[in-house]
Structure formats: structure tokens, C-alpha cells
Amino acid sequence: MNEISIQIPENFEVDEAAKFREEVNVMIGKGEKHFVLNFNNCSFIDSTGLGVLVGIYKKCMELEGSFKLNSINPKVMKIFELTRLDKVFEIKK
């Protein structure tokens, strides 16, 4: 299993999320399906960012891949908890 590690930007919102979606969809189109997202620099995520993560997660699960989130700071983790996405995603602190 070959995991692709991706650094999430400091502010994961509309513009960054759209770019991220395009890049990951290209990788998925090339056969990649195992991703590790590093949130160590991310201090903000909006609903667009969350929606993109959910969409990519669903694609990975359909392809029997993996989708992991690492190093989420407490402020961003609170968003995942409020939206209950902490129960959906595999999160390593």
C-alpha cells in the first residue's frame, strides 16, 4: 500500500479547498487511493474544506482505499467534533 502524504494549508477554505479537490481527483484518476493528510500547519477550516474532505473520503472508501488525518490542532479538532466528523475520519493526534 502506497500512501500519499498531503500537507493541508494554514487556512483550508474555499480557494485552497477547490485546488485540493482538483489535485486529489487527478491522483485518484491515476489510481491512487491511500491518503494521509497532515494538518500540523492548519489553523482554520470552513464548510467548503469539510465538504471537500467528505467527498474525497467517500471516493477513497468506494475504491477500498484509506483516508487518514494527522496532527490536527485543538481549534480545528473542535470543528471536526462539532460536525461529528471525528467519528467518520481516522484521526491520529
Mean pLDDT: 95
> What is the percentage of strand-forming residues?
15-25%
Report the sheet with the most strands, covering strand number, pairing sense and barrel closure.
Answer: 4 strands, parallel
For this structure, the CATH topology is: Transcription Regulator spoIIAA
* CATH-assigned homologous superfamily: STAS domain
How many separate structural domains?
Answer: 1
How many separate helices?
3
Unreliable parts? none
Helix content: 40-55%
Number of strands: 6
Structural class: alpha/beta
By CATH reckoning, the class would read Alpha Beta
Question: What overall form do the CA principal axes indicate?
Answer: globular
Q: What is the C-alpha radius of gyration, as a whole number of Å? A: 12 Å
Order of helix and strand elements from N to C terminus: EEHEEHEHE
The appropriate CATH architecture is 2-Layer Sandwich
Name the strands of the widest sheet in spatial order.
1-3-5-6
- Distance between the terminal alpha carbons, to the nearest Å? 22 Å
InterPro entries: Anti-sigma_ant (IPR003658), STAS_dom (IPR002645), STAS_dom_sf (IPR036513)
Pfam families: STAS (PF01740)
Domain STAS: 1-93
GO molecular function, one term: anti-sigma factor antagonist activity
Overview of the molecule:
With 93 residues, the chain is α/β, with parallel strands linked by helices. It has a single domain (4-92), classed as STAS domain (Transcription Regulator spoIIAA, 2-Layer Sandwich). The protein is 44% helix and 23% strand. It has three helices and six strands, in the order E-E-H-E-E-H-E-H-E. It has helices spanning 14-29, 47-62, 74-82; strands spanning 4-7, 11-12, 34-38, 44-45, 66-70, 90-92. The protein has a four-stranded parallel β-sheet. It has a two-stranded parallel sheet with strand order 2-4. Strand 5, helix 3 (74-82) and strand 6 (90-92) form a beta-alpha-beta unit. Helix 1 (14-29) packs parallel to helix 2. It is globular and about 35 Å long. The model has no long low-confidence stretch (mean pLDDT 95). It holds the Pfam family STAS. InterPro entries: Anti-sigma_ant, STAS_dom, STAS_dom_sf. This is Anti-sigma factor antagonist.
